[in-house]
Amino acid sequence: MLSHVNLTMKVAPAGVLVWAVDMATGDPAPAVPITFHEQDHGVVGVVDTNQDGVARLRLRHNHQSIIAFSEGPFTAIADGWGRGLGPEDFGVMGGLPRREFRAYLYTDRAIYRPGQTVHLKGVIRADDDGWLRLGEVTETHIVV
To answer: Which domains does the chain have, with CATH numbers?
Structure first.
């Protein structure tokens, strides 16, 4: 079954937001009745999308898995459809490799003439999950 309405969903601890869009035009889809179904509690609410195509529902309890759907026009989305589909689930390492250090190099001026010596300066910091701190590196080699 094909639908002409696409749903995008954002789930947070206090609530869920669904955005409905007409796939042919890209315009928001107003007045679409969205039913919210929670794994352990069944139907937890029905909300019509507003003129921006948005339907919001506050949640009163911890939720396991949320499904949002409409029967007319038919469309559905679930917050867990991406689980088990990451590269690591198939034995492929995903993401970027972890870097232990970050280096920032710069020159004393923007342009040099042929034969002139280029003077580099740099800063090396240990990358601790996004926090840059002084490391124990006292010397490094640069290949140009």
So the answer is: 5-83 (2.60.40.10), 101-133 (no CATH)
Q: How far is the C-alpha of 51 from the C-alpha of 140, rounded, in Å?
A: 59
| Three-class DSSP category at 104 | strand
Task: Give one DSSP letter per residue of 2-70, joined into a string.
Answer: --SEEEEEEEETTEEEEEEEETTT--B-TT-EEEEEETTTEEEEEEE--TTSEEEEE-SS--S-EEEEE
pLDDT category, 21, cuts 50, 70, 90? Answer: very high
Give the span between the Cα atoms of 7 and 14, in whole angstroms. Answer: 20
Rounded to 5, what percent of the chain is helix, strand, coil? 5, 45, 50
Per residue in 107-122, pLDDT tens? Answer: 988 888 889 998 888 8
